[in-house]
Design brief:
By secondary structure, the protein is of the alpha/beta class. The protein is 44% helix and 9% strand.
Length: 278
């Protein structure tokens, strides 16, 4: 079974979800993509949403997927997270250490902002600020206001509507709702990078060095991670891109490569066939 955690404001329609679902179908692997709170089209009821370091949510979900998969006769469970979801997943593995192996056999983070401060600053500058920041805030602000309607007094709506980047948005909404003092505290404590030395299950961290959201200078080095963490840092690929073939190209190379690594790391019996085909 493969459990895929989506990125910021992601959904089942995201191109990477579709491509991983296709890969899983071709390999007769059960596939699940749980929605983070508020992303499914139905607002959750509690006075919280989701965030980049939400390892408690990851744990709750993986525990149940593992239990249900075992009950149905399944054995191998792999998990991957894209961007925000990958940071939360990698942080989960670092926080839980050897216990994580009870719930997942191998994990992968894909184009994840493992240093949230560096990535947060990058997305708030230049072209990223003008295009991607606006795109994210266009859906995040209405969700926050809907949350305020559920729980009056949760935050100041005027301050929220005045926010122009993710740093300001997180300062008003994300950080205080999830127990952090402010954005700086949230980005520091929720980052997976400081915890990667404590990871005790096979883990892959894939980051293109030309990712506009994740500065290459912020990527972890071998000295900063445990011996069970594999670092893939190719020069090209962008943010969850890795397009291949002639224009318009395709994005099937991403799940093919990451999926093969997960099967290998998890010791899945189809490993030899996968390697022969690849």
């Amino acid at each position: 079974m493969l459990v895929l955690f989506h990125g910021l404001e992601g959904s089942a329609q995201s191109h990477y979800v579709q491509s991983f679902a296709d890969w899983a179908t071709e390999h007769d692997i059960h596939f699940a993509m749980p929605y983070f709170r508020g992303c499914s089209g139905e607002l959750n009821r509690g006075p919280r949403a989701y965030h980049s370091g939400d390892h408690e949510e990851i744990h709750w979900l993986l525990e149940r997927f593992r239990m249900e998969h075992h009950a149905a006769g399944g054995q191998t469970l792999m998990a991957a997270g894209v961007s925000l979801g990958g940071n939360a997943l990698m942080r989960w593995a670092g926080v839980h250490g050897t216990v994580a192996a009870r719930f997942a056999d191998a994990i992968a983070s894909i184009c994840s902002p493992l240093d949230l401060t560096a990535s947060g600053m990058a997305i708030g500058r230049g072209f990223n600020r003008q295009v991607y920041t606006r795109m994210f805030l266009r859906t995040m602000k209405p969700k926050a206001l809907a949350k305020l309607a559920q729980h009056p007094g949760l935050f100041d709506p005027k301050k929220l509507m005045a926010t122009k980047d993710l740093y300001e948005f997180d300062n008003v909404f994300t950080a205080p709702l999830h127990g952090f003092r402010n954005t700086d505290d949230y980005w520091r404590k929720a980052s997976a990078k400081p915890m990667m030395g404590a990871v005790r299950i096979p883990a892959l961290a894939l980051n293109a060095r030309n990712d506009p959201f994740v500065p290459a200078s912020s990527l972890p080095t071998k000295a900063e991670v445990s011996g069970l963490v594999t670092l893939w840092q190719p020069p090209h690929g962008g943010h969850v891109g890795f397009a291949q073939g002639r224009l318009p190209g395709h994005v099937r190379g991403l799940p093919t490569e990451v999926g093969a690594w997960l099967l290998h790391a998890a010791g899945h019996p189809s490993l030899n066939k996968e390697l022969q085909n690849g």
